[in-house]
Write a structure and sequence with these properties.
Shape: globular
Strand content: under 5%
Radius of gyration: 11 Å
Structural class: mainly alpha
Order of helices and strands: H
Distance between the termini: 25 Å
Largest sheet: none
């Protein structure tokens, strides 16, 4: 099955940051932007 690489949607970024925070990572204000560019 071919793989596709793409930027995350805003909703996916929100989920990702929530997961990271749940694992003890303290995301900074600008950290999520790296997943949207």
């Amino acid at each position: 099955m071919p793989r596709t690489i793409r930027t995350l949607t805003a909703s996916e970024v929100e989920t990702l940051v929530d997961w990271a925070a749940g694992e003890g990572w303290n995301p900074g204000l600008g950290d999520a932007a790296a997943f949207r560019t």
